[in-house]
Amino acid sequence: MTRAALVALLLAAAPARAEKPAPAEANVAQFALIIGVNHAAEPNLPTLQYADDDAASYEDLFRLLGARTYLLSRLDENTQRLHPQAAAEAREPTRKQLDEVVKQLASDVAQAKARQLSTVLYFVYAGHGNVEGDVGYLSLEDARLTGHTLAHDVLEAIDADRAHLIVDACYSFFLAYGRGPGGSRRPLRNFTQTPELASNDKWGLLLSTSSARESHEWEGFQAGVFSHEVRSGLYGAADADGDGWVSYPEMVAFIQRANGAIANDKFRPDVFARPPKGSDLLADLRQAESRHIEIQGKEHAHYLLEDGRGVRLADFHNGPSQTTRLLHPVGAGPLYLRRLDTDQEFSIPPAEDVVTVASLEPSTPRVATRGAAHDAFSLLFSLEFSRADVGPMPTLLELDRRNEEPSIFADRHTWGWLSVGAGIVGGGAAVVAVSQAESARRSVAPHASQADAANANARIRSDNRLAWILGGVGVAAETAGVALLLWPDGDGDHSLSLVGTPTSASVAWATSF
């Protein structure tokens, strides 16, 4: 027998957008620590195919954005051929190598600060997350990164002025939301729930909260779905207002629209985002946007951008009033922009700084359109994205309260015993009311006046009514208390979800036994 209870609380969305930073200048030093793990330390976790590709593609992107990159990933042979620079620089994704990179990064950040530069760190992870007990963690090949480890041994050790965490993994926020196979929904304390990550307002969070049990990697992207969407947005597709910077609200809206046509939420990777305090800036594209590819609204469609090696750099779908500007990588070799509704392809001239699609002649694609690895994923980016889709960030109060010591009244068993007690009190009070009614009945003399009899009958009716009310309350409280006490702790199917959208957020609890 299955019983389900679902409570949803929609939170009004929130603060106004922070002031824009000054125009891009040379007084900001950017660093990116990128980790991609296909093979986790735990033998029970499946092997991923594209976490190394994601890591190498992130390195290419952050180099384009002007960041100094540090890469931890074991690249397979195909990825090494596609990303020779990453192959030359990548270190093994082990705890020893991470510690060495953190020391180097901390030294580089300290040097930048000594030169009066503002420092920004991007921590990017693609791979496995898991949970033990009620604590979530990310996996290296030989170790785990819990929230405490990530906060103290990585972020605090590097000590950048501002940090952005971009994580595509199971258990990346509050539930077992699967990137890899085998994920199942269950409540837990994960790395966002440690006091350091939840309350440190100089660290922004951009986390996948996908709920599928299947892997959210797709061979059409040769990447994780969420990671590809993030990179697409950072190439400029999420810059809805064309101001040259991608904000957290824009990225949230971009990913929501990219997945909006997928009916089955099992295959729809949502996003949770919380910007650092004082600015919702995620990435400043202005240092690199002098070279860009421009797609005006009159050419609106679903496009993909790939290089001559077949590496898919970005997908997007602009609306009829939306001009999209994609960064044009320097030295990337031939680039091809494919329009998927007409299956036309545009060759991007490498020598031009600004390329407008309207000025290009379409040609037949070099290769046939790839088939979808999964019917659901073929719907990605089928909805148009424009400035109108971007709303303010939601205010998620749960994030601020998550680290408080739980009240005694938050415990289910406490409420169960309180309800049982209330039921006993209610039943006792009902017995007292019945006794009073009976006493009133006996107090009426056989030859009492009509007025005295009427008054006595009124008291009897009142006491009986009170007895019924108190008895009903007592029975309800007793039933609720017994249900709470007998409710299963971990064998049933439970879920608690907290999801942010561009305009709202929801909290939901469901359980069955």
Keywords:
513 residues; 6-stranded mixed sheet; 11 helices; elongated; disordered N terminus; disordered C terminus
Describe the structure in brief.
The chain is an alpha+beta fold and 513 residues long. The protein is 31% helix and 23% strand.
Topology:
Layout: E1 9-12, E2 28-36, H1 51-64, E3 68-73, H2 77-82, H3 84-89, H4 95-114, E4 118-126, E5 129-132, E6 135-139, E7 144-146, H5 147-158, E8 162-168, H6 195-199, E9 203-208, E10 217-218, E11 223-224, H7 225-237, E12 245-247, H8 248-259, E13 271-274, E14 281-284, E15 292-295, E16 302-307, E17 312-317, E18 324-327, E19 335-339, E20 344-348, E21 354-356, H9 397-401, H10 412-442, H11 450-486, E22 493-500, E23 504-512
Parallel strand pairs: 2-3, 2-4, 4-8, 8-9, 15-21
Antiparallel strand pairs: 1-23, 5-6, 6-7, 9-13, 10-11, 12-14, 15-18, 16-17, 16-19, 19-20, 22-23
Question: Largest sheet, order of strands side by side?
Answer: 3-2-4-8-9-13
The major sheet is characterized as: 6 strands, mixed
How many runs of DSSP E, i.e. beta strands? Answer: 23
| Inertia-based shape | elongated
Portion in helices: 25-40%
User: Low-confidence parts, pLDDT < 50 over ≥5 residues?
Assistant: 1-24, 172-190, 210-215, 369-377, 395-410, 490-513
The rounded distance between the terminal residues' Cα atoms is 7 Å
List the total number of helices. 11
Rg computed from alpha carbons, rounded to a whole number of angstroms:
29 Å
Mean pLDDT: 74
Task: Tell me the β content.
Answer: 15-25%
Structural class: alpha+beta
